Amino acid sequence: MLSIETAEARAAALVEAARKAGVDAADALYYGDASTEVQVRLGALEDVTRAEGEGIGLRVFIGQRSASVSSSDLSRDALAALVERAVAMAREAPEDPYAGLAPEDRLYRGGAAPLDADDGGNPAPAELKARALEAEAAARAVRGVTNSDGASVSAGRTVFALATSHGFARGYSTSVYGSGVGVIAGEGGAMQRDSASHNVRHLADLDAPETLGTLAGTRAVRRLGPGKLSSGTMPVLFDPRVGGSLIGHLIGAMSGPAIARRTSFLLGREADRLFPAAIRIHDNPHRPRGLRSKPFDGEGVATAPRVLVEEGRITGWLLDSAAARQLGLETTGHATRSGIAAPGVGATNVHLAPGPLSPAELMADITRGLYVTELIGQGLNPVTGDYSRGASGFLIENGEIAGPVDEITVAGNLIDMFATLVAANDLEHRRAIDVPTLRIEGMTIAGA
Q: Metalloprotease TldD/E C-terminal domain spans which residues (predicted)?
């Protein structure tokens, strides 16, 4: 894996080679990563994995024709062959009137961004093992836990560099640490499993192993003896670890490619108040130590914080350059990039602003409802917004959490769901999409 400076130079050299081969424009993406993961189970080491890899992708444009190629071989001969292949492919590609690099005046030209995304650490496998063993031990110590799926701790680093024929060549590095533990409670046919996990940029921010393990064990035991919930229409509360998926569906529907293809349930609703006026959703690519923080997007466009939903209304689409051209708009700096794939669209560190009520206050007036802690399946129609997911969680009775329930389906339409969404005050920044506990009225529940 190269240093940032060497990665920038390598990407820029590949772009220059493509220009000399006769292309009109080009960009090159270098990506390198190294990671170590330690897995334990039942107090013993189960596996240690070390992975390192790097590659470079080249995208070339000849007129309105383009092609993308990549290689994990960074030798001089391999890169020369890569350029030759890309040029040959582009000459045969169909014309795309929206293809092209991002506008030069939108590229990131600032200094080093203060993202604090790389702590420079390199913990030894022995340290990762000790953390994993401690997390699993804490989970197994919870009364009622009978078995373990194991625990893992990982550490890694990534270097990313992008160069374009505009003369842009910038890169950055990130570190990432993850810890997870899963256990089983109960015996025989009454067993239940649950887990806890945490991912961060700095090792110092990772949940203490004992804290994470105790949470996993407690969650598993709380699920023992699930009952059935009769079908009906009722309020549903979404736990923060699953509620973010609802905002993920919103972001997918706001993406420029979905709008351009007319496959989004938000079409024609740009001016509508989709949420209650109190709802505000933020996208902040500059959050220090954020899991998706970055100074520029997958096309080199400078990123900037943005409010996605204000006073209940969306503020516009999320665009890369191609989608912006197709829609007659300007890129919003939301291009994503992975390997040789053409740029896609995605948000960065997203959070839904908390409301004034605690989760207990949010459910205080519910006579009968559902508190969802797990969602299963991918039951969403992105064109209509129809939503249906398998779920498990807890019954809410007379304003309080009652016993566990499972084998449930929760259904509705996202437009109707968003219209009644209320946020609690328990927001924590732990994921790429962070939400507090969310309440939605009138969902259809299919149970026993």
A: 231-447
14 CB-near residues (< 8 Å, 6+ apart): 28, 56, 58, 79, 82, 83, 163
Mark whether 241 and 297 lie in a shared domain. no
Domain membership of residue 141 (yes or no) is yes
Of residues 164, 181, 445, the one with CA closest to residue 296? 164
Is the pLDDT confidence value at 113 over 80?
Answer: no
Question: What is the Cα–Cα distance from 183 to 85, expressed in whole angstroms?
Answer: 50
Dihedral sign, Cα of residue 120, residue 124, residue 125, residue 129: negative
Residue 298 lies in a domain: yes
- In-domain check, residue 17: yes
| Domains of the chain: total | 3
- Asked if 211 and 230 sit in the same domain, the reply is no
How far apart, in whole angstroms, are the C-alpha atoms of residue 98 and residue 184?
52
Q: Is the pTM of this model over 0.90?
A: yes
Look at residue 88 in the predicted model and tell me its pLDDT.
Answer: 97
DSSP code per residue over 337-392? --TTSPPEE---SEEEPP-SB-HHHHHTT-SEEEEEEEEES--B-TTT-EEEEEEE
CATH number assigned to the domain comprising residue 148: 3.30.2290.10
Average pLDDT, the chain: 96
Q: Which amino acid is at 187?
A: E
Domain span at residue 205 reads 4-221
pLDDT tens for each residue of 380-410: 999 999 999 999 999 999 999 999 999 999 9
Examine the domain organization and report whether 334 and 372 are in the same domain: no
Residues 73 and 195 in one domain: yes
What residues are paired with 411 via a beta bridge? 388, 444
β partners of residue 387: 380, 412
Q: Give the residue-averaged pLDDT of 119-124.
A: 95
The whole-angstrom separation of Cα 159 and Cα 161 is 7
Q: What is the pLDDT of residues 39-63, one digit of tens each?
A: 999 999 999 999 999 999 999 999 9
Burial 227-243 (b: 16+ CB within 10 A, else e): eebeeeebbbbbbbbbb
- 312 lies in the same domain as 373: no
pLDDT band, residue 110 (cuts 50/70/90): confident
Looking at the fold, whether 272 and 344 belong to one and the same domain comes out as: yes
